[in-house]
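Table S2 (continued). Query chain:
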Amino acid sequence: MVREFPAVQFERYCDDVVVHCRSEFQARRVRNAIAARLAQVGLELHPNKTRVVYCKDADRRGDHEVTSFTFLGYEFRPRLAKSKTGKHFVSFLPAVSTQAMKAMGREVRFWHLARRSDKSLDDLARMFNNIVQGWINYYGRFYKSRLLYFLRRLNQHLMRWACRKYKRLKRRERRAMAWLAEIARRSPRLFAHWRLGARPDGWAMGAG
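Corresponding output:
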């Protein structure tokens, strides 16, 4: 890249690479050159993952077959954004990817929160806050509202935990969620996702 395309910027992590080009013509030229270079050393581009992506936004309004890509757990695609003056417009932005949310969801299900009726809320916070905070630190840097959408699911798991732990809340999910919301109002920093704004009462701070 330095020798053949010194003006083209790119990012690489292990064998994943994103190359920034100014036109479709340049993108295809660079892709073909990379493919030829890899072939010289016995390698090849992944046939399904290697794509030319059109970064569609308010200024780039053309049509293209592919307008999104995923890199390092983030999905880059056209998203609604808000300017400093409060005006909405379309921008090409990253947010936590669907694949990343599915992986986090599998991790949460593996915890079996509802079965841990021997634990207190404080115990659950100590057990899982570090993991959730790690997700927030990584995926919460861009377009936080999409991560909040996922993190609110944690409250459903806590609600089911409450239904199993307390007899007065058994099979009373709405009452359990109201109880959990009251805890969140009294101790808003108990859980990492509550601190971000994903509280059981539906209140959320920030977006985008």
